[in-house]
Amino acid sequence: MARVRRLAGLIDPYILLLLAVVGLAALLPARGAAADAAQGAATGAIALLFFLYGARLSTAEALAGLRHWRLHLTIVACTFAVFPLLGLAARGLVPWLLPPELYAGLLFLCLVPSTVQSSIAMTSIARGNVAAAIAAGSFSSLLGILLTPLLTAALIGGTGIFSPDALLRIGAQLALPFALGQLLRRWVGGFVTRHRAVLSLVDRGSILIVVYAAFSQGVTAGIWSQVSWQRLVALTGVAAVLLAVMLVLTHYGAVKFGFDRGDRIAIVFAGSNKSLAAGLPMASVLFGAQAAMAVLPLMIYHQLQLVVCAVLARRMAREPGQGGQSAPGDGSPSR
Description:
Blueprint: H1 2-10, H2 13-27, H3 33-56, H4 59-66, H5 69-89, H6 100-109, H7 117-125, H8 130-155, H9 164-183, H10 185-194, H11 196-221, H12 229-256, H13 261-272, H14 276-287, H15 291-317
Helix pairs in contact: 2-11, 3-9, 3-10, 3-11, 4-8, 5-8, 5-12, 5-13, 6-15, 7-8, 7-13, 7-15, 8-9, 8-13, 9-10, 9-14, 11-14, 12-13, 12-15, 14-15
Organism: Streptomyces sodiiphilus
Protein name: Bile acid:sodium symporter
Transmembrane segments: 42-59, 71-90, 102-123, 130-154, 166-184, 205-226, 232-253, 265-287
C-alpha cells in the first residue's frame, strides 16, 4: 500500500488535466468563431505568462546569472546543439517505427528552448544553483524565439514554415511581454513575487488553453486518423530514451567540465528539459493546422520529464551533506 501511495504521489494531477483537455478537444473541438476565440485566448494567456516571468526576474538575478557564462554556454549547447543532433540521428527510425509526421514533431521537440519554472523548481528541490537556473531558463526562452524558428526552417523545412511574419508573431507573443514585464517590474514585481500562486495558475491555465486550441484544430483537420496507438507507444518509448540520454549527457558533461554541485544540478535540469509553454505557441504559428501533430511528442516528453526529474531532484536533495528535506517551495512544476 505504501508503494502504491508513493507511485500515486509521482503522478502530477496536472498531467491528468492535460489528458482530459485533449479528450475534450477530441469530443468537442472548437469550430468557427469558437476556434477563433480559443486561439485568441491562448495567445493572450501565453503573453500574460511571459509578462509575469519578466516581472518576476529581478535585474540583480539576471546579471548574476548572466555573468556565469560557462554554465549558460553549456546549457545553450545542450538545448540548441546536442538535442538537434540527437533529433537528426532519430531520422533512422522513419518509417519503420515513427511515421514522418511524428518524426517531424520529435525533431521540433529537440528544437524548442529549455523550461523556466520546471528547471527552477527542480533545481530548488535538489538544492542546486537556483539563480543560475532562473537566468538560464529565461535566457533560453528568449534565445529560442529566434533560434527555434530558424532551426525548424533549416531542419524540418516546408513552405511557409518560417517567415519574418512568423518571427514577428512569436516575438510579439513571447519576447515583447517579457521585456514589458522587466520594464514594469519596479511597480508589479513585488506583487508577482508575493503571489507565486498567481504565476502558477497562469502557467498551468495558459498551457491548457493552448493545448485545447491546438488539438481542436487538429481534430477538425482530421489528422488523428494518421496516428495509431502502436505509434503512440513507440513515440513514448523514443521520448523516454531521449530524456535518459540527455540526463546522462548533462550530468557527466557537467562533471567533466569541472562545475560544482550546484551548477551541475542546474545544468542537468535546464539542459535536459523542454518548454511546453514556449513550444506550443511556436508550433501554432509555424505549423498551423498540423500543430497538434507537431506538439504531441513535446507533450509526451513534458510529462516524462516532470515525473523523472521530480524523482531525481528529491534523490539529489537526500545526498550526504544536503539534509533530508526538500527545499522550500517544493511542488509540482507545470512547465
